[in-house]
Specification:
Elements: H1 6-14, H2 20-38, E1 41-43, H3 46-61, E2 72-76, H4 103-111, E3 114-119, H5 153-160, E4 166-171, H6 177-183, E5 186-189, E6 209-214, H7 217-227, E7 257-261, H8 271-286, E8 290-294, H9 302-317, H10 336-347, H11 350-363, H12 368-392, E9 395-399, H13 415-419, H14 426-431, E10 435-443, E11 446-454, H15 459-472
Helix pairs in contact: 2-3, 5-6, 7-15, 9-11, 9-12
Bound molecules: glutamine.
Glutamine is lined by residues 125-128, 151, 171-175, 203, 310, 422.
Amino acid sequence: MINSSLKQLGAMLAGKQISSVELTQEFLKRIAQLNPDINAYITLDQEKTLAQAAAADTRIAQGNAEPLTGIPIAQKDIFVARGWRTTCGSKMLENFIGPYDAGVIERFDAAGAVNLGKTNMDEFAMGSSNETSYFGSVKNPWDKTRVPGGSSGGSAAAVAARLCAAATGTDTGGSIRQPAALCGLSGLKPTYGLASRYGMIAFASSLDQAGPMAKSCEDMALMMNIMTGFDERDSTSLQREKEDYTRQLGKPLAGLKMGLPKEYFAEGLDAAVGKVVQEAIDEYRRLGAEIVEISLPNTRLSIPVYYVLAPAEASSNLSRYDGVRYGHRAAQYTDLMEMYCKTRAEGFGDEVKRRILIGTYVLSAGYYDAYYLKAQQIRRLIAQDFEQAFKQCDIILGPTAPSTAFKAGEKADDPVSMYLQDIYTIAVNLAGLPGMSIPAGFADGLPVGLQVIGNYFDEARMLNAGHAYQQVTDWHLRMPEGI
Ligand code: GLN
């Protein structure tokens, strides 16, 4: 049952083979057994969770269930949820109880899904290994000496260890796709503006986007149906007709043009990862896709551009944690300035401080034109690369991350090598495009992700491309040993 798809679970609930309370208890039992070691969840609240499950059972009995009614989902701790502790992985918010629901949480609640708990993450979503979390690192269920990726590392480990049916994540530069790749699951970052950012704690607002992390593309399509849609409380939310993301599933891929960016297969890519990705591309050829080579010439600039723009936005967004309104406040201080300084010195971890320093620097008078403005201009060029590419192909394929899961501690003291984890994912955020990672096989026993990038609003087609691959392979159904 723990390996069942969302559709199968929905059918079991509808057919009364199991109740939502029973299903939820099953996951809670697994969490109690495995979470103390894996550390995927930061906050659990059995009472709230089981009350939601009981309400779902009533709804199912009344005959007005929706596809996810009664299904237990894990929520990344970046989403504010009413009555739930919401920390964003930071000491700053260690005791913060959500006074309202984020747009994404509201939608899952309305659909009758069950919130199993809040998952661990890099502090304020800054990181690629989940090691910057104030609540401790997360173990990769495939090899517990290795990181699960980040920043949505808790959600990824929870799905991989089958401690939930599916989970939410957020992706500013790769935080859904990279942990999905490192933990052997499917993860999708939608087109910027499709999922509400209301109540999703802001890191870099022009890049942040919420999306599903699940076992398969079919599961992700069902989650996308819930997670997306206009929200007037988010000024960057797009006003579009509601779509059904399952509508293309099952369509043959014959004639689909898939582009391989030559820059994604160059120096820096681990050879064993590259081999697995090539095998996945061969599978797509057999499925009838036409493979063409493309170029994204500005790829190499995406990391430097991101590490100007994302810290700039973060330094502004994180100015709200001042000890006055909410969150941590230093216990001892003599005046207001000292209160601010001590509060922020105590409440933020090193990586967050590094980003605030960089961001404040690049935005300051005298440096703004040289760094911030220049980065914005290159961001446009990066978006234009994709515009050109999508004249030659429908979908882009490549690796998600340059390596498989690395050892805990291996990159903790080397920020630049950590930042390079997102070399293939960041450009997608800078352009606002949708991107996803699906399991494509293993290198030395560790999962490898294939990245699938689509044009704006082309998620339904991407999901079908992933689904078609998952119909002829079983990588996505493999489970780590001993879980
Ligand atoms: N690893 C990148 C960073 O640290 C991306 C994180 C994310 O997508 N939230 O900024």
